[in-house]
Amino acid sequence: MMKEMLENVRNQSPLIHNITNYVTVNDCANILLACGASPIMADDIDEVEEITSICGGLTINIGTLNQRTIPAMLAAGRKSNELGHPVVLDPVGAGASVLRTSTAMKLLQEIQFAVIRGNVSEIKVLTQGNGTTKGVDADVSDRVTEENLEQAVTFVKAFAQKTGAVIAITGAIDIVADRNTAYCIRNGHADMSKITGTGCQLSAMAAAYVTANPGHTLEATAAAVCTMGLCGEKAKRRMTELDGNSSYRNYIIDAIYNLSPDELERGANYEMR
Amino acid sequence: MMKEMLENVRNQSPLIHNITNYVTVNDCANILLACGASPIMADDIDEVEEITSICGGLTINIGTLNQRTIPAMLAAGRKSNELGHPVVLDPVGAGASVLRTSTAMKLLQEIQFAVIRGNVSEIKVLTQGNGTTKGVDADVSDRVTEENLEQAVTFVKAFAQKTGAVIAITGAIDIVADRNTAYCIRNGHADMSKITGTGCQLSAMAAAYVTANPGHTLEATAAAVCTMGLCGEKAKRRMTELDGNSSYRNYIIDAIYNLSPDELERGANYEMR
Amino acid sequence: MMKEMLENVRNQSPLIHNITNYVTVNDCANILLACGASPIMADDIDEVEEITSICGGLTINIGTLNQRTIPAMLAAGRKSNELGHPVVLDPVGAGASVLRTSTAMKLLQEIQFAVIRGNVSEIKVLTQGNGTTKGVDADVSDRVTEENLEQAVTFVKAFAQKTGAVIAITGAIDIVADRNTAYCIRNGHADMSKITGTGCQLSAMAAAYVTANPGHTLEATAAAVCTMGLCGEKAKRRMTELDGNSSYRNYIIDAIYNLSPDELERGANYEMR
């Protein structure tokens, strides 16, 4: 199943429009190319509707959010909805400021997202419409563990039902769910959190997978999450004692570039609940 | 000939002003340093004229174009023209939106460019003043091949005559031409298109070569294109089976850093038409 | 002494707010993670006060300065001052334009900085309130050498007295001083200037060190400067003949990721004046 999701990205090479932050944008572009998709970045209100129209899918990422790009996010999202293109939301730092929380909430109100991907703290803020987070990483108290997994799955399914989107919470254990079904994914490595933007990269890649697999949003998102985690593991094994987070970043993107559909099928480590 | 072009960059270390997109800007800065030049990035209308005045050349790149920086592009371009500094245009995504096409056309009207570098689809849009492209990559139907090369050369020379600029169309076969003479260059590797921003990087580097070689714009641009392609080949040979597009990006910049003028002279693979 | 400074960063993992340029921002984020801190980038006037409030320290870097972010820099700086958070200024390109010089002077007037880090030309411009620099690199005529070191130390201490900040001038010999005491640091490698943004990265890292070591601003800044220089040396030793500035960038960040406090203590090469 996972296998086909990646094959379709490689075969169709979907063009993905990204309105994203300037911190991790280069890595987002390279990871899209690595998985077989093509990136285009455009955030001016005067062109986002046209740009999104020539693409297959859209990622909206609110890192380094600013007043100039919020209307562009809304316009691009609405246009994508009109065209039936899948839209992925990455609510980076929701809860860290009123601007980010209120923008995320406005986006949720006005745009039908196919996928919402964040860490557990960000997603909790979205479910409540307010709350605080401590920056761009998940609060320790929120983390999904084996002990609270069942509760977390219920929470994620409920938010999927409310939003009509597939919800992906990533962390030590990832949960990808629609209203009925959850993938609990145990790929990845803790050191991935020592690289800036692995979450942003995954959101961009999820847009590619979902775009290339219409009608299979849940499976495609789960496949993207497994891809990122599995390649985090592969890249970790490649590391020498001199390597650190900068090389690890490169190795993960390299691993995605080289990942075969069969490897993904074999290496994806998940259970369904 | 190629050899002297690179030697002059290394010896003069020209300072290059870049008004460019936020996706590939870091790679543009590092490739300028790699070839022996120095980068400065500045895009605010209140400083671009001063900044460009202390530089030797200017690159204008319309990726992630926005309303804030268009007047800055025009002001910097005009100032550079006044000062006799060479200006390079990279019309990223011209044809993908009215904003990009009309901005590129306005830049062409108001600024005398020394070099215009793009893929064949972008350049076709500029010749027509309209048209559509499918994102930031060339359309398959437009591609320069051995079969249509002579026709493509004629097209490029005509656009060079019309604009007074050296035109560089890069792809599987690169064409660099003024009104009279074309270099048809067969350096490079297809996998370079799997890295974001190799085109942007080349445009920035072309500005450095042209700035360090006044009176030799055609040869300097051809040398920059050969440098990029040759280093794409060298970097490709360095790749292990674990490497992908992220390492390839690093290896290309590394190869430029280490390229000797003699290696460029020997490795440059071109014919003149 | 140096040792404890790094240990405190690793143990406390300070969250650092960065208002910075879009050229080197990704490297700034990754170097903060490499040394054990956490980054958050935010530059919109509507959120910077909130964001800086959840952080421990702030870096203001004026590369790619624009009118939109200047009020955000001032607001974030004032808020950090109110909260007693250390603020680091990196006056990138001060002297290269009136916009940069006047903004740097305004920031100096309105915000109490804990640390000001730049190259010698930038710092000279700040002491005078005007003057010119040739881009983002120090002018050759300004450079600190063994011959003019004593004079440079006196100059730096005087500026530290005037501003109440620790001043860090980095170059072949680095000087880190408050009004009374200067560290003259001989770590680093000349090739670090062939990578874009090593200065920006150091400024971000200095914010992390100072934040994790309250009451020890001078020592913490000196430790950050030694860390960068020492890791520049370590990374240089790792380089093969195929490596250039792109790999060097990665290796420096990797080296910081792997640096032990004991290594820093042993490798820091400084004298006090």
TrEMBL record, chains A, B, C:
GO terms for molecular function: hydroxyethylthiazole kinase activity. Pathway: Cofactor biosynthesis; thiamine diphosphate biosynthesis; 4-methyl-5-(2-phosphoethyl)-thiazole from 5-(2-hydroxyethyl)-4-methylthiazole: step 1/1. This is Hydroxyethylthiazole kinase. Its EC number is 2.7.1.50. It catalyses: 5-(2-hydroxyethyl)-4-methylthiazole + ATP = 4-methyl-5-(2-phosphooxyethyl)-thiazole + ADP + H(+). Its cofactor is Mg(2+). The keyword Transit peptide does not apply. Transmembrane segments: none annotated. It comes from Dehalobacterium formicoaceticum. Keywords: ATP-binding, Kinase, Magnesium, Metal-binding, Nucleotide-binding, Thiamine biosynthesis, Transferase. Substrate binds at M41, G197. InterPro entries: Hyethyz_kinase (IPR000417), Ribokinase-like (IPR029056). Belongs to the Thz kinase family.
